[in-house]
């Protein structure tokens, strides 16, 4: 089986993002793969390359063949240089410790150069925004971004707690509403009986008051 180190396309239309994978040469481009060892984003300036150098080196030493683009990436990240140093160690040109020191120095210098390019690109973008709108585009430091994300998570948690509390309170409100409706219905049913009782008591009061009035009139007539 022939093993390839190649790119696998990801991302949406006109916004490509590539995974650096180890795959069988017979499998399709976006098909199954053995292992993913990195990510390549060509849209940033400079291009963003995240790769596991150790795994890439191991697969190279096992005989995996990189494609032309991946070979350029491995050369850029120093993996091909590490392979070259390993050959020198086998031939006895220098020791493994010397090879490791040379490789570490090369990687440090390369990363420093990449960081300078990244800063220059950021300044160029800032100057472009100044020329276009008259003010620089605000760039949030990583700490501020972390604080914003934390605050957003706290607000989201509070909203979830409030929603849960409202859901718990809903049955209680529904029970109270049902009790009020039941009491109102009971009062409406009892209203006719109350009215009948009041009507029945009214004549008795009038009849009781009438004799007292008559007796008072008779006493007055006798006195005269």
Structure in a nutshell:
The protein is an alpha+beta fold and 224 residues long. Helices cover 68% and strands 13% of the residues.
Please explain how this structure is put together.
With 224 residues, the chain is of the alpha+beta class. The chain has a domain at 3-133: S16 Ribosomal Protein, Chain: A. The chain is built from 5 helices and 5 strands, in the order ββββαβαααα. Strands 4-3-2-1-5 form a 5-stranded mixed sheet.
**Span from first to last CA?**
144 Å
What is the CATH H-level superfamily of the domain at 3-133? Ribosomal protein S16
What is the CATH third-level topology name of the domain at 3-133? S16 Ribosomal Protein, Chain: A
What share of residues is helical?
Answer: 55-70%
**Major beta sheet, strand line-up:** 4-3-2-1-5
pLDDT < 50 stretches: 204-214
Structural class: alpha+beta
**Which CATH class of the domain at 3-133?**
Alpha Beta
Q: What's the average pLDDT?
A: 76
| Content of β-strand | 5-15%
Computed CA radius of gyration, to the nearest angstrom: 45 Å
Order of helices and strands: EEEEHEHHHH
Q: Report the CATH architecture of the domain at 3-133.
A: 2-Layer Sandwich
Count of β-strands: 5
Report the biggest beta sheet as strand number plus sense, adding barrel if it closes. 5 strands, mixed
Categorize the overall geometry.
Answer: elongated
């Amino acid at each position: 089986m022939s093993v390839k180190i190649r790119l696998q396309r990801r991302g949406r239309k006109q916004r490509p993002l590539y995974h650096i994978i180890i795959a069988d040469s017979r499998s399709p481009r976006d098909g199954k793969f053995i292992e993913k060892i990195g990510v390549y984003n060509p849209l940033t300036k400079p291009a963003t390359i995240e790769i596991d150098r150790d795994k890439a080196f191991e697969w190279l030493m096992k005989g995996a063949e990189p494609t032309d683009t991946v070979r350029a990436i491995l050369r850029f990240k120093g993996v091909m240089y590490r392979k070259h140093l390993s050959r020198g160690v086998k031939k006895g040109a220098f020791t493994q410790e010397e090879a490791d020191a040379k490789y570490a120095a090369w990687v440090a210098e390369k990363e420093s150069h990449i960081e300078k390019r990244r800063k220059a690109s950021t300044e160029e973008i800032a100057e472009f925004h100044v020329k276009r709108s008259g003010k620089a585009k605000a760039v949030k430091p990583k700490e501020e971004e972390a604080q914003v994300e934390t605050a957003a998570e706290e607000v989201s948690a509070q909203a979830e707690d409030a929603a849960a509390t409202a859901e718990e309170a809903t049955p209680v409100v529904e029970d109270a509403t049902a009790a009020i409706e039941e009491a109102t219905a009971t009062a409406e049913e009892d209203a006719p009986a109350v009215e009948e009782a009041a009507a029945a008591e009214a004549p008795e009061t009038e009849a009781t008051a009438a004799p007292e009035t008559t007796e008072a009139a008779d006493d007055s007539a006798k006195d005269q």
